[in-house]
Amino acid sequence: MCTAPVTGDAPLFTPSNKLWVLLSVGTVVTVTCWYYGSSAGYENDGFEDHVTHEDMPNPITGHIPDDYVNFNDNFPDGDTVGLPQCG
């Protein structure tokens, strides 16, 4: 698990893949794992990040396309970030 700020207007999706909200730049999220996937219409690098908390009112458990989570140009599965694959 790690925390990271989001970039752009980051789309936060519910577990059923419905857009919940666009998070403002710099909103800090807690990411617990990643999985392969993409959200149509949004930037994507083939990863989705599973988030369990967002620094905002009424946080949810959901997912954000990895391109919107600032891991300093690192992928969530790499040695630098080291998050496990969801499963």
Order of adjacent strands in the largest pleated sheet: 1-4-5-6
Instruction: Provide the residue-averaged pLDDT.
Output: 93
Residue stretches low in confidence (pLDDT < 50, at least 5 long) are none
Structural class: mainly beta
Helical residue percent? under 10%
Short description:
The chain has 87 residues and is an all-beta fold. It contains no helices and six strands.
Task: List its traits.
39% strand; mainly beta; 87 residues
What can you tell me about this protein's structure?
The protein is an all-beta fold. It is globular, with a radius of gyration of 11 Å. It has strands at 2-5, 10-13, 19-23, 28-36, 47-54, 62-65. The model has no long low-confidence stretch (mean pLDDT 93).
Write the layout of secondary structure elements.
Blueprint: E1 2-5, E2 10-13, E3 19-23, E4 28-36, E5 47-54, E6 62-65
